[in-house]
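Researcher: We're reviewing a set of sequences before deciding which ones to prioritize for further study. For each one, I'd like a predicted 3D structure that I can look through quickly. This is G-protein coupled receptors family 1 profile domain-containing protein. If possible, include the structure in token form so it fits the rest of the review sheet.
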Amino acid sequence: MFYFNLPLLYASKTCIILLYAYNIAASQISFAFVTFSIHRFCSIVFHSIPFFKTKRWVIICITSHWLVVYLISLPFILRNGPYCTNTPWMQMYTLFMVVPVPALINTALNMGIFLYVRSSTRRIQPRTMTVFTTGSINRQPTISRRDIALMKQMIYMFTMFIGGWTPPYLLLVIDTFPVGTTFVVFYVLVIWAELVLLGIIINLFKCNHDLREYLLNQFRRHILRL
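Model: Here's the predicted structure for G-protein coupled receptors family 1 profile domain-containing protein, in token form for your review sheet.
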């Protein structure tokens, strides 16, 4: 910040743009996971519809993601002054849009995927164990490895997302009140959130077999060309 013209940077109109960009940058990562969940939900649940497997659907998802992020950040522009003050309700709004709202949407979509996969597995494979006792048949439902793997993936993504992004934004909300928090704690929490994000991205690449094979093939082609 010392490299900028601070009087110009903190002018009333400039402050509105800075806070607007701040909320966009804060929420676009979390809503990117929502976009990914929507794309995955439609491609799995509505797999019989060819449209959800086209590039046009991918473009619509990406465009909708940025449009939503711009729209939910409009309160930072439409508010009345003080313009250069990040008030407590603004910090709470950012926290709410970064963590609870995307987390709830992601949970609902992942639960929908899990229920659909489980119901389809029951239709494809026999889901009962037949035990013959004294003239009676006992049926005990079982859960496939596919169901368990999907549930573990849901729990991992949800826990990492909440555990990584809640602390730094919650600290910003607390810091708006006179409680005396330090910048060192905030920077440590920011580094923690970035490491969590890196872990989530690695996990997505690890679980996406098609994408992993595509990247490996592209890497091998470039190596062979060299």
